[in-house]
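Section: protein folds

Sequence with per-residue tokens
===
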Amino acid sequence: SLNATGAGEKGVSVSCAMLSALVPLGGSSLPSAPLDGSRSSRHSAASHRSSHRVTHARYLHRTSAAAVAAAAACVLARHWVPRRKLGRVAREAVALQAAPTKQHWLFYGPDSTVDDDFLSQLLSIQSVRAGEMVMSLADALRLVQDATAILRDEDTLCRVDFDKVVVVGDLHGQYHDLLRIFELAGMPGDDNPYLFNGDFVDRGSNSLEVILALFALKLRFPKAVRLNRGNHEAVKLNLLYGFAQELYNRYGPEGERLFNAFSEAFRWLPLAHVVNSEVFVVHGGLPGPDPRLAFIDAGGGGTGYDAVKQVDETGRSGGRKGGGQHLSLLGYNPDNVSLPPRNTELTLEQIAALPRYLEPAGDFGALERLPFEEAEVQRLVVDLLWADPRGKTGYGPSYRVQNGCYIFGPDVTDAFLQRNGLRLVVRSHEVKVNGYEWTHPSLISVFSAANYLGHARNKGAILKLERSHISGHLEPSFITYEASERTTYGSA
């Protein structure tokens, strides 16, 4: 027996035998083996963990509030949630007393394929049961591994030709924004291709729904659904900004296996696409300056490029605060500083040759500790995933400088396009009030997570590129939308 404290009725002593009176919630089912007093808690816990059909750590008693405490106690015994969350689990169980008990399982077995019926069920079930576990761990792993096999066969820089394509910016776990996009621009398909431009996960509360939907779409339409890597498709950020915790909340400690499978898939994502030999689509930005001169405090280092350090009467600095790579965002104006454009712009062939299977370096110091050739690869990957455009010409210090990247001006964009025979750069990575922005004359930023973080109050937007019958070129148009009332936001 266990003592369930903080579960509504403190000090309730229960045994696992009481589970026979519990009703599973939200597609859950009890372990197939009977649980009674003759079985030890340890043995029962092992049986519970081995069952792929237990979808939640929440159970409801038919009549007794004490059984809610019993359920929470048994959850604790099986280590599905940390002890500190036990009270919350029980409170959620009480709040879900009116929830239907019908199971909402979607199976993806060893011989399964993603067809239109599977897609329809996945999208609808995830909408109704957002935040819950709609696939077993084994089935979810299988789907991710199948998608990884397709991504592994693609190039670092993918060249595609479409008469039209929908470009989607950052989604950040806002699943209902994704469904809204499909309502506005149509479902992805061979006759309606999509390019999702990174940052699928983290921040929002439904990253799992977003990435399972995208991977299923990739399996159904491997040529028409394209995926770029974003800076948040990385282990370090997933651990910090919510995706890892979300998987733990759904699958418990076993969710680590799914996290590792997703991390493997993310490492194989392409870094950029070229559409119709005229539009370069990348999550962050363009390659940084060459040579890469450091930004330093006024009067030091001897590079000739000083990151303005003006101290007012309050002692506030307008540039870098002290040494290292940390910038002050209070009064910081990157347009006060400039490095010249590259002597020779990077070619598409050089980008295509980058070994993409890696974890991006987490900070500038980490880059400095790497061997030279490896560091150069990392710097270019970081540029593509992290860099931002700016209004002034040349390169400036980025507030993301701890990642070793820069901000770049319209002359840098024009030089890159001219060098590679392109017309337009499309990127994401930054919140925009209207969801999109012509940041440079030849560069568009598009961001698709409306009301980002729950308080940005920005619109979401998607970009449509369609071949003009007059010019023969891809011409851009935009669709914007407000945040969905159903969107929930993570705490990260």
